[in-house]
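Checklist before submission:
- one chain only
- standard amino acids only
- sequence pasted in full

Submission:
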Amino acid sequence: MYSLNLIPGQLTLSTLRQVNQQPVHLSLDESAKTAIANSADTVQQVIQEGRTVYGINTGFGLLANTKIAKDELELLQRSIVLSHAAGIGELMDDNTVRLMMVLKINSLSRGFSGIRLDVIEFLAALVNAEVYPCVPKKGSVGASGDLAPLSHMCLPILGEGQVRYRGELIDAIDGLKIAGLEPLTLAAKEGLALLNGTQASTAFALQGLFRAEDLYAQSCVVGSMSIEAAMGSRSPFDARIHEVRGQQGQIDTAMAFRDILQTRSEISDAHVDCEKVQDPYCLRCQPQVLGACLTQIRQAAEVILVESNGVTDNPLVFADAGDIISGGNFHAEPIAMAADNLALAIAEIGALAERRIALLIDSSLSKLPPFLVNNGGVNSGFMIAQVTAAALASENKTLAHPGSVDSLPTSANQEDHVSMATFAARRLQEMADNTQGVLAVEYLAAAQGLDFRAPLKPSDKVATAQQILRAVVSFYDKDRYFAPDIESANALLGQAALAHLLPAQLLPSA
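Returned file contents:
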């Protein structure tokens, strides 16, 4: 189990990647506790003074002008959690819920939310016991925060709802027993602090970011294999070309290809004097296209990391001045736009890979056997595998439509512009699955092409990538049931089997 001593506001992408990948034992740094206590005390002071403050002793949304009696404040917090738990659809997986909970704990622990330490430690205890609330994926528009998902996340605090423990769905009360907990009564402001924020959108966006990074790495390695298989030129990766343009993502991507391809190989030596002047764009322009994708990944990572450490509930408590101020940090537009940019990168990685597959199966371009198989006609080879890749790449074109440009007013037009960040980020997983499927087909095709180049050998790293595949998928000597080959290649990519072949420190979460 991964151990994390949480210093609020100082999460890193590397840490968040670990939280996403495996269970975590979370402890809150002692330095956070004073600010948490001061914030909660400020809320109680407001109540004692009889001041009217939104979110503490008023209704919510369009009901913000409704004053709530002091003896109903605890009921108000319970009611808001129950009524807002209105999600629908498949449940988030445990990794997503764990990531969302850690993000929420991090935000609340900054000391601007007016919530008691007991409530924060309750959430941490659930995380540590691997008791994860059941949270439907759908039902948030990304403002006023991820209300429905976060409400479902908080139901177990009240002893309500269901949780998942070691893959089994059980009642929240039973889950609390496993974690050694009893239901809590929420104090003023606490229900709103728990369910207001962008942590569901941000958790989905983080997972999309990590997948985009993995796809970029896979594409650099598999794209290098295709260059060798197609006897492509190394000249387009010359550092001087990229330095005079100045785009850092492009410069770094060209460097990655030079590292994987090395300066020469037996295959490259064999076509030094060939008549071909230039390669098609899918080979030649990989630094330009994948470099632009890397730039998008890095920019999105910057936004998402800031949001991961930010305070996004409302109203916010500034204990040093005794002020409680209502604003709009729950609006997830930054995450929506970052997710849209990741969608572009994921779609383009897949689109370029599909074109490389098309090149490899076209004997007029690759000078390899048609459809990468001997005895063509009797054998169809990679003909329909490329069709599968085309279908996946085409799906991503539709899924890449930006979510952030959409909005539908809610709460009787009080919340009249929303971000749609939750969907914008959630759809990244489906897009990443599609692109990884395309890369899996290319991985098979490139390895097949390299086998046809034997006994000539590719660069060492390309040879290693081919050997990793050939350990589980044999040469396609004649037509056979193809889907298991794609599944095997896809599994290798999903296990990051090629990640070690990429130069270090290229990606934000490295």
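Reviewer check: Strands lie at 2-6, 24-28, 88-91, 131-133, 136-138, 162-165, 168-171, 316-318, 323-325.
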